[in-house]
Design a protein that fits this description.
Structural class of chain B: alpha+beta
Number of helices of chain A: 6
Radius of gyration of chain A: 17 Å
Strand order of the largest sheet of chain A: 2-3-1-4-5-6
Distance between the termini of chain A: 36 Å
Structural class of chain A: alpha/beta
Largest interface: A-B, 39 and 30 residues
Helix content of chain B: 25-40%
Number of domains of chain B: 1
Strand content of chain A: 5-15%
Number of helices of chain B: 11
Number of strands of chain B: 22
Largest sheet of chain B: 6 strands, antiparallel
Helix content of chain A: 25-40%
Oligomer: heterodimer
């Protein structure tokens, strides 16, 4: 499969949320990457059917995020990868953004087997490792990245499409996402949370000052 | 000038090809698709007129910055950040023949059938691949007898003329931003194809020894033959440790050299009287840029613009921003009047597409070392062209004989 073919499977033209799939990790997809990866699909503990009027954001490590996205697609959600990290051109870097590439190819093969509706509710996939920006020395290439409001639909768009709840599946609410969720909450979207094991609960997002 | 639609059937692959073959890595911004479903077609007459205006503007800008660099006593009204003002004093060794000077002037068609400009992107203009590869893709998609100006070809040739063959070029950018990287990667790949060693780093990956730029990137430690900078000057000043001061007096050829700061600030027009009193002509600028004044001189029919604004953000065009945003801009401008200017509002004339929709246009016209070098355009349903606008390729229709 070419990188364009892989992308088209993740972002079919007629599917509702496809435009938000970020092309960045697909651009230099290399099928020859030799990484040992456990492709076992995780069991989804926190829901067993599509939750009405609810979009999901999965913010765990990238490999698990894609696998969880595929598991959720079997329940009926459309996985929308919004990874936005670049490669380091062989420099030592803060973040390994390439590690998700084989998963995107594997995920495309899995998605081909799953019949999803064009208007299936979205599950946006993030990699919590994006925020690894510790530099042991100045020569390190910082390819960490943040998620910004422009990477996701607006609260108005969600509401116009009958989505009034955002479920965050994460270990914690990361600071960059907190900023986006705070605005969603301000605009009448309910924010739900699960760490993947505990039941879903509604949370209140506090305003925090965050500059990357 | 006309908007030619790309049919739905063709647009599917056009969008994919733009992303994968034309470095368009940011095709969505919040709810907006940022790749237009149209192609902007200029007549040859319009093209020639724009070339002439652009080169006249550029000549004036280059003369102005040369004068200001030698006469820093006049730059106070620009109210440049203090940290930068200190460094600007080091630029005396600037020689335009050693550096590559790249700018982009943003043109807008107005309701009185004239051109106005809203600004010059003097420091770090972007949109490189959109001005080089996207028009070619559009011509291939439409299968029409149009032609385009290849900005990347012109820029890379200009770099090759000044930088020794096989030299190392560092593409300095904010490495965490993929939308900055797409710009750098395009021109970096282009230079690599010409035999140069393209390396990618952040502003603090360069140190300066005896005014020579040295890379400290862990995959390339050593001398750099050219700095291609995409990190804005006003962001450099916040970098610690302060190795960035070397950018101002380096002997390493740069694109752009910090000389760009004088015209980058939107307060540039506030010193035109001084320039003209000293024999620098600003005739084309005066003709094309709406009247610009200090915030205290605000009057009806003017808008607020931030001095260091980019991509159209924080400009108080009432019908193009929310009430909340509008009030926030006014409040900030009144609180920090030296960080803003007020400018007479011009009325953009929307262009009707063949399928009956109307769009406002911002047509960026590049110069490289004083010569017009292609176009980068964006369209929007609103008169303010900002990050929500869509990129549109610019092509030229041949004169029918």
């Amino acid at each position: 499969m070419t990188n364009k073919e892989v992308y088209k499977i993740w972002a079919p033209y007629h599917a509702k949320w496809s435009n938000w799939v970020r092309p960045v990790p697909f651009i230099y997809l290399d099928e020859k990457i030799d990484e040992f990866i456990d492709y076992t699909l995780p069991h989804i503990n926190y829901l067993n059917e599509v939750l009405d009027n609810t979009a999901i954001i999965v913010d765990i490590n990238g490999i698990d995020s894609i696998k969880e996205g595929i598991s959720l697609s079997k329940i009926g959600y459309r996985p929308i990868p919004i990874f936005n990290g670049t490669n380091s051109n062989n420099a030592l870097s803060t973040t390994n953004n390439k590690v998700i590439e084989p998963l995107l190819i594997w995920g495309a093969l899995e998605l081909q087997k799953i019949k999803l509706k064009d208007n299936a509710l979205p599950v946006f996939l993030l990699d919590e490792n994006r925020l690894n920006r510790y530099k042991i020395n100045r020569g390190i290439f910082d390819n960490s990245w943040d998620v910004y409001y422009q990477d996701l639909p607006s609260s108005k768009y969600f509401l116009n499409n009958n989505i009034d709840k955002i479920l965050v599946r994460a270990n914690k609410i990361n600071k960059d996402l907190n900023k986006i969720l705070y605005d969603y909450q301000k605009n009448n979207l309910k924010i739900l949370f699960t760490n993947g094991f505990e039941p879903i609960k509604e949370i209140k997002i506090k305003k925090i000052k965050y500059i990357n | 000038m006309k908007l030619v639609p790309i049919t739905d059937e063709k647009y599917i692959n056009y969008r994919i090809d733009a992303m994968f073959d034309c470095y368009k890595w940011d095709p969505q911004f919040v709810d907006n698709n940022t790749l237009a479903r149209y192609v902007l077609v200029l007549s040859e007459k319009e093209y020639k007129e724009l070339v002439e205006l652009t080169e006249k503007l550029d000549l004036e800008t280059i003369e102005a910055e040369k004068f200001l660099n030698n006469n820093l006593q006049y730059i106070k009204p620009l109210y440049l950040p203090k940290k930068l003002t200190k460094e600007i004093k080091k630029m005396k060794n600037y020689d335009k023949n050693k550096h590559i000077r790249l700018m982009r002037y943003d043109f807008h068609p107005t309701i009185d059938n004239k051109w106005q400009i809203s600004e010059v992107n003097s420091d770090v203009p972007g949109g490189f691949a959109e001005a080089s590869l996207l028009p070619k893709l559009a011509i291939k998609t439409l299968k029409e007898d149009y032609y385009s100006i290849d900005f990347g070809e012109i820029l890379s040739n200009a770099i090759s003329r000044k930088i020794k063959k096989k030299g190392t070029i560092m593409f300095v950018h904010c490495t965490s931003y993929s939308d900055d990287r797409q710009v750098m990667q395009y021109i970096g790949d282009k230079m690599k194809s010409l035999g140069y060693n393209s390396i990618y780093g952040a502003a603090d990956h360069l140190i300066f020894k005896n005014k020579q730029a040295i890379s400290i990137l862990n995959n390339y430690e050593g001398k750099v033959d050219c700095i291609f900078r995409f990190t804005p000057l006003e962001w450099l000043k916040d970098i610690k440790p302060k190795t960035w001061s070397g950018y101002f007096d380096t002997i390493t050829p740069s694109c752009n050299h910090p000389i760009a700061i004088f015209a980058q600030t939107k307060r540039f027009p506030l010193i035109w009287d001084i320039l003209e009193q000293n024999g620098i002509k600003m005739t084309t600028w005066r003709k094309l840029l709406p009247d610009t004044k200090e915030v205290k001189d605000f009057e009806e029919g003017y808008i607020y613009k931030p001095a260091c604004g980019r991509v159209g953000e924080n400009i108080s065009i009432k019908e193009a921003c929310s009430k909340e945003e509008y009030l926030k801009i006014i409040k900030d401008a009144k609180k920090h009047p030296k960080n803003y200017v007020v400018q007479k509002k011009f009325f953009s004339k929307p262009i009707k597409s063949a399928d009956g929709k109307e769009y406002h246009i911002c047509l960026g016209s590049y110069t490289v070392d004083g010569k017009q070098a292609g176009f980068y355009a964006r369209i929007s349903k609103l008169p303010r062209i900002d990050s929500y606008a869509a990129d549109i390729p610019v092509v030229i229709e041949r004169n029918k004989k």
